Structure formats: C-alpha cells, structure tokens
C-alpha cells in the first residue's frame, strides 16, 4: 500500500489536509483493499479532471471577453460597432477597444518599438501624423500606399477617435495612450536648449507681429482633433508633434520617410531617395517659376531621415527652435537645416549650391539634399497639376513622371480634395477597409 500512498493524488491530499484529518486519512487508507483504493483513486482523478475543465471553461470565457474588448496596451483588432466622429469624447483614456487589427496598437515607446519592428522593411518605416480633422485624407493617403503595395507605413493618430476609426478600417495605426509622452518629448527638447529666441533669429517682441501663426502657451491645450487651417494655433501644435514622433523613431533605430497626408504618392519613391548620399533628403517648397534655388525654401511635409546621430541632432535642434520661437516647424526646418527662412537669417545650417544644405552645430554635421521639383513637385507647380489633370481626363494610364505631388499651397482642405480628385489621386475607404478611386 505504500506505493499507492506515494501517488500524486495522495500527495495532494496529504498536503491539503490538517494533521488530525491526515491521520484519519492514513487509517482509512490502511484499511482499504487494493480494489477499493483503485476506485478511490479513480474518483479523485475524475474530480480533478472536472475541476480542471471548469477552470479552462472560465478562462476561455474571460479570454473571449478580452478578445472582444482588447486592452489598449498591446491590443489589436477591428470593430463591428458604429464609428466615432471627429472630436468625439471618449472619456479621456479608454481602457478597452473593440477591434481586430494586428497593426493597430497603443501605449508608449515600448509598444511603438514593437509595432515598428513588425512593420519595418529593410529598417525603413513610412510615417505620417494626423488627427480626426483629416480622417478623409488619411483614408486616401493610406489607400495610395496600399495601391503601391507598400505596407511598411504607420499612422500616428493624435486623438482617440482617429485611432479607433483607422483601426477598424484596417489601417496601420498607433496612438500614444498617455499624453505624458508629448509633455516628456517637449521637456527633453527644452532641457538642453541653449538658444534664446533672440539667438534663434527672432526678437521676442517681434514674434507675434511678424508671424500670424504664432502660438503661445495658452493655446497648448487647444483641441487637436479639429481640421486645423494653415497658420492656426492648432496647425502649429500639430506640426510640432510630427517632429517629436520622428526623432523618437530615429532614436529607436529606424530610417523614416515622413509624409503629410496631403501628399499623393504616384510611384514608389524610396529607392530614388535612398540613392542620395545625404542624412536628410527633403522636398523643396519654392514657388514654381520664381527662379529661386531649390534650397531657398524646403518643405517639412515630405522627407527621408536616416537613423544616425547626425539626423537626430538636427531634429532635436528643429524641435528646440520650434519650442522657443512658437512657430510652425516649417520655419524651424529652414532655419536649422539651411540657415535661413526667406528674410530670417542666422540659423546653424547653410545653403550649399542650388540643392543642398549643411547643418553644423557643436560637432554635429548633417547633410541635406533637396529633391528636384520636376520629380517631387509641391502644390505651387501648376504645370505638374495640368499634366495630371489632363492625363486623368484622358484616362491615360502611362507610367507617371512624378513620384509624388504635395497638395500644399491651397487655402482650404476642400480645395485640396478637389485638385487631388481632378488629378485622379483621391481615394475613399469604406468601413470594411476597401479603397475606391473617385473623380
């Protein structure tokens, strides 16, 4: 009988019972025949199996509930319920999300790094940043990327409503669940700042007069889910958040191709951009036909930034300048990378020839290549728009002569939509995630 007493069931019973009961148990066991003992052992095993099955059923139910309402941190999925509207109040920071999308996640830098590692191709990520006010541009932009079979893109949603909508539509999306990320990003940039507004090329008492898009600290809490018009305080704050995300992705070790959502991608541009031997490869924002150098005015809405210490130093300087001057980062890009913005002089960068700039500061030197307007036109290139309008009207499906075209330089989002539609570059995405070309 000693052999039977050493079985797993007997050991469990002896460990679980008090001493007096254990003695009674031993006496009872000693009086059992071998056949009775086998029967008792079978009963214990059946009870143990039933208990295990109950635990598994309860655990499965809990997992089922978790699948339907996944936790934000590390969660993923697509919803079946109605979609939120722009600016919808979600009660602060929601803890559960009903969707099923493996590339829609939220959290902090650790969760972002995990998602980037899943998406990046050859260590490159195509990054965009937007809010609910531009949700239809997000749909069109991501549809264009998918038409080019480009899936290594990521949307950083600035508000929960856009995050939820994008997740439900199958868009790769990330949302910083805690606003502390943005506060920390700003504090890190400001903590090492060694420029005053005056040394940054702006007299403090001139900022509000010379720059109508100036933003003060009182506007930091404005609603960033609205469709922010160019030059508004909300527009300035949104533009600043773009670079704060980019520098974090660079620090994580990924090359970034950043694109605003009003940039239409006609052909795959990454190989062409990568061929330039420069740390930062960026679009020009010169007015077409002005005769100015390509690097007289660069555009912060489309660029490639390589993950190295030189690019990181340049972007940190851009963020610092923007924090001090309270201007949109378009001006900070020009001031820091190319040394000037039109009549504002004195930045750490300088223009080199017609199409290059060089950022140099405290031993850090980042080379900047400005892309040709003939291949990467901005919104002021009327000839490029004419070519696209005519090709679309004639249903000309020949290989496009442009890699991208940026629908900036237009006064409203309605006009942007119109010109992109007339050029055959406007997509709509259904609630099922399917893309349809309109116009």
Relevant terms:
two-stranded antiparallel sheet, 439 residues, Spore Coat Polysaccharide Biosynthesis Protein SpsA, Chain A, alpha/beta, 42% helix, transmembrane, disordered N terminus, membrane, 15 helices, 2 domains
Can you characterise this structure?
- The chain is of the alpha/beta class and 439 residues long.
- The protein folds into two domains: 2-68, no CATH class; 96-370, Spore Coat Polysaccharide Biosynthesis Protein SpsA, Chain A (Alpha-Beta Complex), CATH 3.90.550.
- Helices cover 42% and strands 18% of the residues.
- The protein has 15 helices and 18 strands.
- It has a ten-stranded mixed sheet with strand order 3-6-5-4-7-10-9-15-14-13, with helices on both faces. Strands 1-2 form a two-stranded antiparallel ribbon.
- A hairpin with a 2-residue loop joins β14 (356-361) and β15.
- The longest helix has 35 residues, at 34-68.
- The protein is elongated.
- Pfam families: Nucleotid_trans.
């Amino acid at each position: 009988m000693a052999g039977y007493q050493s079985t797993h069931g007997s050991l469990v019973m002896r460990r679980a019972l008090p001493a007096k009961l254990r003695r009674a148990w031993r006496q009872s066991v000693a009086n059992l025949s071998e056949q009775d003992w086998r029967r008792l052992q079978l009963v214990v095993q059946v009870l143990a199996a039933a208990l295990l099955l109950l635990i598994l059923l309860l655990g499965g139910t809990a997992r089922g509930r978790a699948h339907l309402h996944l936790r934000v941190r590390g969660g993923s999925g697509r919803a079946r319920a109605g979609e939120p509207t722009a600016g919808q109040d979600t009660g602060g920071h929601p803890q559960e999300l009903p969707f099923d999308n493996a590339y829609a996640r939220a959290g902090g830098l650790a969760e972002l790094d995990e998602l980037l590692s899943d998406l990046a191709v050859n260590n490159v990520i195509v990054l965009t940043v937007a809010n609910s006010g531009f949700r239809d541009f997000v749909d069109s932009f991501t549809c264009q990327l998918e038409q080019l079979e480009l899936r290594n893109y990521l949307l950083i949603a600035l508000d929960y409503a856009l995050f939820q909508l994008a997740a439900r539509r199958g868009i790769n999306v990330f949302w910083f669940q805690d606003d502390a990320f943005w506060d920390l990003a700003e504090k890190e940039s400001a903590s090492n700042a060694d420029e005053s507004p005056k040394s940054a090329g702006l007299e403090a008492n001139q900022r509000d007069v010379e720059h109508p898009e100036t933003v003060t600290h009182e506007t930091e809490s404005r609603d960033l889910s609205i469709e922010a018009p160019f030059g508004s305080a909300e527009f300035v704050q949104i533009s600043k958040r773009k670079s704060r995300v980019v520098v974090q992705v660079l620090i994580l070790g990924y090359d970034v191709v950043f694109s605003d959502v009003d940039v239409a991608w006609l052909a795959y541009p990454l190989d062409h951009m990568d061929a330039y031997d420069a740390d930062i490869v960026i679009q020009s924002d010169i007015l077409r036909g002005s005769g100015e150098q390509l690097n007289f005015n660069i555009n912060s809405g489309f660029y490639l930034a390589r993950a190295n210490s030189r690019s990181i130093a340049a972007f940190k300087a851009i963020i610092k300048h923007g924090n001090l001057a309270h201007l949109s980062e378009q001006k900070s890009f020009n001031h820091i990378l190319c040394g000037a913005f039109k009549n504002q002089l004195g930045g750490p960068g300088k223009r080199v020839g017609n199409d290059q700039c060089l950022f140099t500061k405290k031993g850090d030197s980042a080379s900047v290549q400005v892309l040709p307007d003939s291949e990467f036109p901005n919104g002021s290139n009327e000839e490029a728009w004419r070519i696209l309008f005519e090709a679309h009207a004639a249903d000309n499906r020949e290989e496009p002569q442009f890699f991208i075209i940026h629908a900036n330089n237009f006064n409203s989002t309605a006009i942007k939509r119109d010109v992109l539609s007339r050029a055959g570059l406007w997509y709509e995405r259904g609630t099922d995630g399917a893309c349809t070309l309109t116009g």
